[in-house]
Amino acid sequence: MTATQFQPANTGLRQPILQARNLVKTFGRVVGLDGVSLDLYPGEVLAIIGDNGAGKSTLIKCLTGAEIPDSGELMVSGKQVHFKRPQDARVHGIETVYQNLAVSPALDVASNLFLGREERLPGPLGKIFRVLDTKGMRRKAKEELTRLGISTLQDVTVPVENLSGGQRQAVAVARAAAFGSKVVVLDEPTAALGVRESNQVLQLVRDLRDRGLPVILISHNMPHVFDVADRIHIQRLGKCAATITPQSHSMTDAVAIMTGAATA
Amino acid sequence: MTQQQTAGPPSAGHADLAEEFLDRQTPLSRIRNILHRYPAVSPALVLLIAVVVFGLLNDRFLRVENLSLITQQVSVVGTLAIAQTLIILTAGIDLSVGAVMILSSMVVAQLAVNNGLPAPVALLAGLVIGLAAGALNGFLVTRFRLPPFIVTLGTLNIFIALTLLYSNGATVRGSAMPDLLTWTGTTFPVGPVRISTGVVVMLLLYIAIAFILGKTAWGRHVYAVGDDKEAARLAGIPVNKVLMSVYLAAGAVLAIGAWIQIGRTNAASPNAGVDLNLDSITAVVIGGTSLFGGRGSVWGTLLGALIVGVFRNGLSLAGLDVLYQTLAVGVLIILAVSIDQWIRKVKS
Q1: Residue A161 carries which DSSP code?
Q2: pLDDT tens-digit profile of A129-171?
Q3: Is A101 within 8 Å of B229 (Cβ atoms)?
Q4: What sections of B110-186 are H helices per DSSP?
Q5: Which has the closest alpha carbon to A146: A177, A115, A118?
Q6: Cα B90 from Cα B86, distance rounded (Å)
Q7: Chain B partners of A132 at a C-beta cutoff of 8 Å?
Q8: Residues of A in contact with B36 (CB under 8 A)
Q9: pLDDT of A53-65, one tens digit each?
């Protein structure tokens, strides 16, 4: 399976980092995905929009291992992969920020950043007694937050439940960015946020892209999508209705395609 | 991106004001924040106040012999409460801890006394019983996705029945009991006090479990699973494996509890410890561990067990009827849960 086979005309010869081909996923009689294909190129923000029930979340879950598609193919850097659980996707460098954030409220910021991949102390303390390197993880958590320009989180020892919505989102995004070596997927990152916090998160998305990490962004918010996306994948009734760019189409066009009032 | 200024924040100033308003702290909410961060603070205060008050009521209370007696009275429940804490931290509950402990102690005593097996082999068999009981509970909780309350309500009855079937309802008494089995009931002097070995074993267990919960990835995963199961799963934590290991660990702790029980009573009785299930939950709850999971510590549980022990001992020294002890414990439970609910409101 070579990448050139699926090369869309407008993107030249670059190799997509993540490719999906004809994904199908049904839940009983409900068809969640009805043959969806998608390409994600290096250094781009690909937005996925669509009405409720259009298959956005199912698509993302299939891309990140939270659901297993009934049929279809997934390729990471041109190599076919099969994700059975979220860890599988993570091993391939795909990190996801889920809509419900998947943070543990009672644990502190640093513990949440390293949740599921804690680091142990070097030497016998870590090897035999399996003692966590709490200080080291806190230091690294701080470094990562600084690197991402997240200034609102100074104290990494605060339990996440004491943070505001935007700060929690920042924790979740920071976790994805710290470990996502290839792709970061954000599911409705601004849904529960105010204006200022939304802008901070959108800035984070731009920063990630500028560092070369491609981002998949699922959102209902058209201004946000048109603000940060390079390309926009429009889901409708379990299929990809069109892939457009903010330059080629207006928000009104996008909504029209989304609702079936127009075609691209 | 050229459009990014369109959503610019002209309202940022208002947002700052609003945040400042929300952040404003009253002395009460400050106390709440401290309690929220250090859940063991409130049981420690209650214990301190209780010790002072009972000490003033009766000068025999603060004598070292009496304090040593309280620790011995607490040793079995305190050990069961460790197992209970582990399970409650995962947002579960174990109604079968007492029954498992009794079953394990019956097996150990009968194998050693009636079947003449060497004491270490009998103890090992007790450990196997504890692990098997934990495995059964864990299996039903993880594979069949049954609520832990229902699972352990069922296994509670099963284990009680098995104990009675196995023992024919007869108590195994001390005279023929090997020394190793009653070792946990022996005492040694530390200055003017006599400390029982069982209490030391219990404290070592507390230290070990506190270390594991606080310093290892497994401990952190236990909290994460109890806090938000789905979030833990999405973060890549093998939730079912963690749950299973928690039930197994609890089973092992219960087997050690059985050993302490044999030492303390110099016997193994199928009818002992009927109220140990609820007493262990009481200790955990009073110790500030949340029944909703993900919050609390074994140190809080130790304090909780000591509080119950101090109340029972102190009230009886003050000459009050046993009924009032039970009444006091009931009030304590409700107070503890109310405080827990109030502390949880910290969430912004």
Answers
A1: G
A2: 888 888 989 998 888 888 777 777 778 888 888 888 778 888 8
A3: no
A4: 119-143, 148-167, 179-182
A5: A177
A6: 7
A7: 215-217, 220
A8: 159
A9: 888 889 999 999 8
